[in-house]
Amino acid sequence: MRVIARLLSLGKWLLLGLVLLEVASFIAISIQNYIVYGHVWEGARVRYDPHALFLHTETPRRTAHNPPASDDGSVRRIWFFGGSTARGWGTDYTTSIPSLLAKRLNGNGDGPKFELVNYGQDAFNSLLESKLFQGLIADAKARPNTVLFYDGGNDSTYLAQYRNPNGHFRFRRMQALVEGYRDSPMGLFKGLNAAFYGSSMREIWDRTHQVLLPLDPEGPLLAAYLDKLEHRYDHLNRLAGAYGAQFLVIWQPSRWTETCAVDKTITQSEGELPGSALTAYRGNLKTIYRAVIARLAGKPYFRDLSQTLCARTRPAYRKDGLHLLPNGRRMMSDKIAAELAGTAAAGQ
What tens digit of pLDDT does each residue of 277-286 get? Predict the structure, then answer.
């Protein structure tokens, strides 16, 4: 009986320890979310989508400065895909990059008119964007003239976080729902198994990879990711072309990957998140950016705009070094407009 009592006591303390660890992990994640997003939630309200896993309840997001709808082919339609920076996280829809781009493109007097459709989704990377695009193009009555992917930040984040070339938002939880049923000792207890992979403890474990463990620039993980990314973009380029649309990939700017010299008073005013300089996050971002740019540099659809904001004379980045202030969004919309004009002039 004494042995049984000790085992029960040990089990009780183990269970209590797990509960306390889960609570502590939840608090840590909530604090991190509040620092980054200004609230404890990660992202906005979403709904299930059979093509892209999830979508914002407002999809596509409204875009300002679009011309009146027309069916006579006089209005060129641009589908704009990306993550929270493309969607316009933290800003009114009228000042998102797609809205500013529409204003820029449609301010050309008697020139052609453009309709921007903002399919940006918080936390989307190129993998989820490709799923969304393929579902949309299959069902669309009014097809695009241009398909534009605004990528970089989320692709790098999820590769560093999950250490899997197929990583995406909530990758571990989605994977566990399918694969964990037979592969996990808890597989038969589906709810318990899903709760484990969806726990705050497991999320903290994944996030430590992102910020504490440097990626090997010569390792097999990065090589596998580059192969998949190149094949994905090549496929989307062919798919868009089959529907008579041009395909463009904009590799977005990040303060942490800039190789230029910017006035220190500007970067100091932009600030940074607490403790960000002490982690491996910046190094991982640089490693992935350099590798992607080198791999895709010769692709006709690829535009490396990661250094676009080097010319800023006013703050352009938020503290996270990826999301943009009004000046940054304006500069990017101007640059993308110039790239679209150059692509059209080249007949691509």
Answer: 667 889 999 9
Indicate whether 40 pLDDT > 70. no
The tokens of 112 are what?
């052609």
- The pLDDT tens digits of the residues spanning 166-210 come to 999 988 888 777 776 666 676 677 667 777 777 777 788 888 878
Say what the pLDDT of residue 39 is: 65
Structural domain total, the chain: 2
> Which sign, positive or negative, has the C-alpha torsion 45, 49, 53, 59?
negative
Together in a domain, 132 and 229: yes
Same-domain pairing of 332 and 320: yes
Same domain, 78 and 138: yes
Distance CA 31, CA 34 (A): 5
- For 137-163, the pLDDT digits (tens) are 999 888 999 999 999 999 999 999 999
Does 143 lie in the same domain as 6? no
**What is the spatial distance between Cα 149 and Cα 250, in angstroms, rounded to a whole number?**
6
* Bridge partners of residue 148, in order along the sequence: 80, 248
β 53-56/46-49 pair status: antiparallel
CB 198 within 8 A of CB 204: no
Give the separation between CA 80 and CA 60, rounded to whole angstroms.
10
- Collect all residues with Cβ–Cβ distance below 8 Å to 149 and sequence separation of at least 6: 81, 82, 126, 129, 233, 236, 247, 248, 249, 250
Domain with 133, as residue range(s), is 46-166+220-345
Asked if residues 324 and 317 have their Cβ atoms less than 8 Å apart, the reply is yes
What predicted TM-score, i.e. pTM, was given to this entire model?
0.89
Q: Give 81's pLDDT tier (boundaries 50, 70, 90).
A: very high
